[in-house]
Design a protein that fits this description.
Layout: E1 5-11, H1 16-30, E2 36-40, E3 43-50, E4 53-60, E5 65-70, H2 74-81, E6 86-89, H3 101-106, E7 123-126, E8 135-142, E9 147-154, E10 157-164, E11 168-170
């Protein structure tokens, strides 16, 4: 079984909610709940002033797009691609490209039930990127951005470096 990832689907403008409803109906009818896990139209609450009155309305964050968490295979691709109102997946040609972890975080999508427990003063080892195999001491934790500020030894001086949660291993 393949791993489910987030994909972006382009739709006709204004059809986002109809596409979401149609895909959810097809998932139910074809029993694809194990392969297509979630269909989302991201919205945010905005306060508009019209005729001197404030009204709370929901605006689509990405008009013309729907986000889908699914396993990519021939069946799921066919179901989504042939849904009325869908013009295609976002990606080069006809090849859908999943969202990266960074893109998902900036959109406020969590990649699952992963919880991190970091404390200031803990020693961590960097496991990827430019600082690979470097050890440092945690000086601050930002759970919103999922980053740590660690002090590393560079040229004989303590230097602060910001690094992602998934790029370190706690030394215990």
């Amino acid at each position: 079984m393949a791993e489910a990832k987030w994909y972006v689907v382009h739709t006709y403008s204004g059809y986002e909610n109809k596409v979401k409803a149609n895909i959810e109906r097809t998932i139910e009818n074809r029993g694809l709940q194990e392969q297509i896990l979630e269909v989302s139209v991201p919205v945010q609450d905005v306060i508009e002033v019209r005729n001197g009155e404030k009204k709370k309305v929901q605006k689509k964050l990405f008009p013309g797009y729907v986000l889908i968490n699914m396993e990519m295979n021939d069946d799921t691709w066919y179901v989504v691609r042939n849904t009325r109102g869908v013009t295609g997946f976002v990606g080069p040609g006809s090849k859908p490209v999943p969202l990266t972890e960074t893109e998902m975080r900036t959109m406020g999508i969590s990649s699952g039930d992963i919880s991190y427990d970091f404390a200031e003063g803990e020693v961590v080892t960097v496991i990827s990127g430019a600082w690979l195999d470097t050890q440092g001491v945690i000086k601050s934790v930002n759970y919103g951005k999922q980053t740590l500020t660690i002090n590393v030894d560079m040229f004989g001086r303590e230097t602060p470096v910001e690094i992602g949660f998934n790029e370190v291993r706690v030394e215990r």
